[in-house]
Specification:
The complex is a heterodimer of chains A (about 400) and B (about 300). With about 400 residues, chain A is mainly alpha-helical. Chain A has 15 helices and 4 strands. In chain B, strands 6-7-8-3-9-10 form a 6-stranded mixed sheet, with helices on both faces. The chains are: A mainly alpha (about 400), B alpha/beta (about 300). The interface between A and B is medium-sized, with 23 and 32 residues.
């Protein structure tokens, strides 16, 4: 019976264009877009380039030195402000304007008074960008200040430069992706996005499962099957297990896309030097949770339209809460706690344990256990409801 | 009532009752029903009469809350090999072809290998689906869909085949084909339980029938017993126009429709001339006279009343 059901469900899905788009095309598109869009963001922040303007009213040497230091910053692109800089700034071009007052040199005297550098930011400047610019300006000011101090103390020769005293290489950056093992490079955006959108796509099996289940109920096919002697457990098992196979196909597809397709479009390839046992355990656990959830939705909705709306909406909500669309690490603590109620959050943590932190199947037993318990509980509720509900 | 010997009795229903949770009245209420082996049995009743519930109980879909059902002396259960049901709805997958549907249901029934292939081929042949077997079922006409629905029901040749409105919404050709096929299966020994609202069809097709309403069995018997009861011989006279109430009172009869006079129990044929004279004196002309039996429709409406149902 299982083989007959497997063939039937696969035929039904293969002839359902919408289901194919949702299960396979949608996650591929999401991974490609998000991996490429966030590529710069994950590439050690080195690709960030922020445009800034000087509004320099000072002709002091210190002001020129400050500009030189700012110009040398690898993540800033500096130029001179235009007369309509206020209009340009509010339009977002540039991101910031640095005002250097006329008597800037007085800031380094014994009585600096009220001399201030002023940063004007564009309305769309983000927190991270603002912090980066502020740090760059303070660093440049410290350099000018230090140079002035060293010069006044007679510690700088004519050929000396403040850079001789600044050790930019004092900080080494390593990525400890695996315990005790330093990775060759930082995690890439594709490493983060493949599991996120894989989980999202796996949960979208709720729509074809619920839609066909409702149609079977409305057309009395379920009654016919029950009269043929199929128990509720067999009925659900035969319907859900083929979709576990589809979930595994989704995993394979997403890995292929991450390894082979993303690099073709200029992104970094997914690193698959990870535990395949762990990946399999996590995929099966996420699949069980998605199947249980799908079984419950399929049982409680009454029409195919309800199946589509309830299934789609609940998936998007679980994804939003669970860190699929917005990573949980940038959420406030309250929302991070709320994220725990979404099974997608557990799934994503498990996958990241494997893909980012070098874990294996033992590392994800807790997440896999929670997901499996969630899925079986949903399935039990669904079957109980189905058994005692009049068809 | 059918008086059957133990050998000829196939379906035996005794004091069967079933009530849905939350319902005010039982859907099936203390029903006693016997169906002989090899019968072509009509099950009639208005919407909500309890037919589908009774069929579901016979098929083992629901468990009786009181009473018992046995088929060939054994209590019924879901999945019993003896019974197959063809529901009124198109209970198959429109995205699959007839062949794929039959292969799936044959797999569900546990068939494999040669047995499965032979059963599918036989079902396709019986239902006349050979030329469309590879086409998706959602492209079929209503008649073809009915025939596929039927083919799934006869995949595993059952002892009892229950057909629920098997010819609803089909053209005359498909109806004739299905009725001929049902008769052929019956001749081969399959007991047929046939529910329908098409009373003429049941009257022509079935050897015996039962009428239920409100969950209760109102009448059961052979067609001869139902339509020509010795104790009830109806007389019907159709007039050229609606009669006056005065005429109805003088004739002491019932009015059926607008101009049919009806005497449910007319025994004295020799009083017919007096009756016709009374009609004639009222200025009415007689269009036709029916005597010596009644149609199944008349019996049905008499037993279940003319009140509209949900």
């Amino acid at each position: 019976m299982f083989l007959a059901s497997l063939k039937k469900e696969l035929l039904l899905v293969s002839r359902d264009l919408h289901a194919l788009l949702v299960l396979f095309a949608m996650p591929v598109v999401f991974v490609l877009i998000m991996s490429l869009a966030l590529q710069e963001d994950f590439s050690s922040r080195g690709g960030v380039s922020l445009a800034g303007w000087y509004l320099n009213e000072s002709s002091d040497d210190e002001a020129i030195e400050l500009q030189d230091h700012m110009n040398g910053h690898p993540q800033l692109q500096m130029s001179t402000a235009t007369d309509d800089w206020r209009v340009q700034l509010t339009d977002g071009e540039p991101l910031f304007v640095l005002h250097i007052p006329e008597n800037f040199a007085q800031a380094f005297s014994d009585s600096p008074g009220e001399i201030r550098l002023t940063l004007y930011f564009a309305p769309d400047a983000g927190t991270r960008e603002r912090l980066l610019v502020e740090a760059a300006v303070k660093q440049a000011f410290v350099r000018v200040n230090l140079q002035a101090f060293l010069a006044s103390a007679g510690m700088l020769g004519d050929d000396s430069d403040i850079s001789d005293f600044m050790r930019d290489d004092v900080l080494a950056i390593e990525h400890l992706n695996r315990p005790g093992e330093v990775a060759a490079q930082a995690p890439t955006s594709v490493q983060q996005n493949v599991p996120a959108w894989l989980i999202f796509a796996m949960y979208f099996i709720v729509i074809p499962i619920a839609t066909t289940f409702v149609q079977e109920r409305q057309q009395k096919t379920l009654s016919r099957l029950k009269m043929m002697g199929i128990s509720a457990w067999s009925l659900y098992g035969a319907k859900l297990l083929p979709y576990m196979l589809l979930n595994l196909l989704q995993l394979a597809l997403m890995l292929v896309v991450g390894v082979h397709i993303v690099p073709l479009l200029g992104g970094q390839a997914l690193n698959l030097d990870v535990s395949f046992g762990g990946l399999l355990v996590m995929t099966l656990a996420v699949s069980v949770s998605a199947l249980g959830f799908a079984a419950l939705v399929a049982t409680v909705v009454r029409t195919p339209e309800q199946a589509t709306i309830v299934g789609g909406t609940s998936n998007i909500m679980l994804g939003a809460i669970g860190g699929i669309m917005v990573p949980t690490f940038i959420m406030p603590p309250v929302m991070q706690s709320v994220a725990m109620i979404s099974p997608m959050s557990w799934g994503l943590e498990g996958y990241l344990d494997i893909l980012l932190r070098g874990g294996d199947w033992r590392s994800v037993i807790w997440e896999a256990g929670v997901l499996t318990a969630f899925g079986l509980t949903m399935l039990l509720i669904a079957i109980t409801f189905f058994t005692y509900k009049r068809e | 009532m059918i008086n059957s010997s133990a050998d000829s009795l196939l379906i035996d229903i005794q004091q069967l009752s079933f009530q849905y949770p939350g319902a005010e009245q039982p859907a099936v209420d203390s029903v006693n029903l016997q169906i002989e082996r090899g019968a072509l049995f009509g099950l009639l009743g208005p919407n909500g009469a309890g037919k589908t519930t009774l069929v579901s109980l016979i098929a083992g879909l629901y468990k009786p809350q009181a009473g018992q059902i046995s088929i060939d002396g054994q209590a019924v259960y879901a999945g019993q090999r003896a019974v197959a049901v063809v529901p009124q709805e198109y209970a198959f997958y429109g995205q699959l072809s007839a062949m794929e549907n039959l292969a799936y249901f044959a797999g569900v029934l546990g068939m494999t290998g040669v047995d499965k292939a032979q059963a599918i081929a036989a079902a396709i042949h019986v239902a006349g689906l050979i030329e469309v077997a590879q086409r998706r079922a959602d492209t079929y006409s209503g008649g073809l869909k009915r025939r596929l629905n039927f083919a799934i029901g006869v995949l595993r040749r059952p002892k009892v085949l229950i057909l629920d409105e098997a010819t609803a919404n089909v053209d005359p050709q498909s109806r004739a084909f299905l009725l001929d096929t049902i008769r052929e299966l019956n001749r081969e020994g399959v007991t047929i339980v046939y529910t329908s609202h098409l009373l003429d069809e049941v009257q022509q097709l079935c050897h015996s029938a039962a009428i239920i309403d409100g969950g209760k069995l109102l009448r059961q018997g052979t067609m001869q017993e139902l339509l020509h009861p010795q104790e009830k011989t109806a007389l019907e006279i159709d007039l050229d126009r609606p009669p006056s109430s005065d005429l109805l009172e003088r004739l002491q009869c019932q009015l059926q429709g607008t101009q049919r006079l009806h005497w449910p129990q007319w025994r004295a044929l020799n009083g017919l001339s007096t009756l016709l004279a009374t009609i004639s004196s009222g200025g009415y002309q007689v269009q036709s006279i029916h005597y010596g039996g009644q149609s199944l429709e008349n019996l049905y409406l008499t037993l279940t009343s003319r009140a509209l149902r949900d």
